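User: Just a sanity check before I run the rest of the batch. Below are the structure tokens for the first item. I only need the designed sequence back.
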């Protein structure tokens, strides 16, 4: 399983760290080397120049229509690197992607792959790209292997590139090719052992989990054995609307906010509490999420891989029938609440309209 990461808006502290990391010759050499004056080359922007601007200026640069720059944050390690995607108005459905893990101690531990999965999700599920490509120094074999694991294939070799005067490879991947690799990359390869499962079953909250209603102890144990217990820091993104839902999360401690995007920004749909499962959309159809999910507090969750839970439900109908019946009941309840809120809001609007009509 690749380590969990999030992509965040770049801060001035992040840019400072990028500048410092690039001063390490091993980091800059794995990236795009140095210019004729011996300064480390950075793609998309110059850290030194950016740090001399007002923050509003460089935040606009980082989120322009042609260049998007995001910091890579790991759940336990904090800021570890940066990703970028560059597009061209002449090829709006094709983008060039970059990833830099600046902390050398974390190289070869999966953070580059995890960051690229997040970036490619944005490219294909949010930005609407159909193809992504990367330019990689030919000598950087770990980076080439990283992209090939994600489904990229070599398209051409260049003796020089616009970034570096040494042989580089151009690799590319289309959305369908990436989708075929994605599931294999994001899922854990191990299950909880019997002792760990028994300890979880001893906790009171597990007997209040909405989606486990009417499951026997043995049936709950089978579902729990698929999970990975995870501690999630406040502010961490557990899912993004429109993206695949890779996991069903069982909240053991803490709260999560579910939001949808509107013309007025992000609107809160509800707050999920201890004992709730989310996002249920992960178990429906293609598994594309309807809402974005963010940890409001530090959370403890059980992360159950979507595909493994669906497979369990298919192979053991006694579990699947109960799980999906519970899900239908939960969704019906939420729909009833939403309908009540809509009715109440409509009634208030009529009352206000009547008041103004009589003024």
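Assistant: Here's the designed sequence for the first item:
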């Amino acid at each position: 399983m690749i380590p969990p990461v999030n992509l965040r808006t770049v801060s001035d502290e992040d840019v400072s760290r990028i500048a410092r990391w690039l001063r390490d010759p091993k980091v800059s050499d794995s990236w795009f080397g140095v210019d004729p004056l011996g300064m480390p080359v950075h793609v998309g922007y110059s850290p030194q120049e950016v740090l001399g601007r007002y923050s509003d200026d460089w935040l606009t640069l980082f989120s322009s229509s042609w260049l998007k720059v995001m910091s890579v944050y790991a759940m336990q390690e904090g800021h570890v690197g940066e990703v970028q995607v560059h597009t061209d108005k002449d090829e709006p459905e094709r983008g060039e992607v970059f990833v830099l893990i600046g902390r050398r101690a974390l190289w070869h531990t999966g953070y580059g792959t995890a960051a690229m999965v997040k970036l490619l999700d944005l490219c294909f599920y949010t930005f609407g790209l159909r193809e992504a490509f990367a330019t990689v120094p030919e000598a950087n074999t770990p980076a080439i292997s990283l992209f090939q694991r994600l489904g990229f294939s070599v398209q051409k070799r260049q003796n020089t590139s616009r970034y570096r005067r040494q042989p580089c490879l151009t690799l590319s991947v289309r959305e369908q090719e990436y989708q075929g690799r994605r599931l294999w990359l994001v899922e854990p390869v191990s299950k909880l052992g019997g002792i760990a499962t028994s300890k979880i079953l001893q906790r009171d909250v597990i007997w209040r989990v909405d989606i486990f209603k009417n499951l026997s102890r043995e049936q709950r144990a089978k579902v729990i054995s698929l999970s990975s217990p995870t501690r999630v820091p406040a502010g961490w993104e557990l899912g993004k609307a429109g993206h695949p839902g890779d996991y069903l999360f069982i909240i053991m401690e803490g709260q999560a906010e579910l939001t949808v995007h509107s013309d007025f920004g992000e609107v809160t749909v509800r707050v999920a509490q201890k004992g709730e499962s989310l996002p249920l959309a992960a178990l429906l159809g293609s598994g594309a999420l309807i809402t974005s999910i963010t940890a409001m507090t530090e959370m403890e969750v059980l992360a159950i891989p979507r595909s493994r839970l669906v497979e369990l439900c298919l192979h053991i109908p006694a579990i699947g029938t109960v799980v999906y019946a519970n899900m239908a009941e939960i969704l019906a309840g939420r729909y009833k609440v939403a309908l009540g809120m809509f009715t109440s809001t409509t009634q208030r609007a009529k009352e206000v309209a009547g008041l103004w009509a009589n003024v």
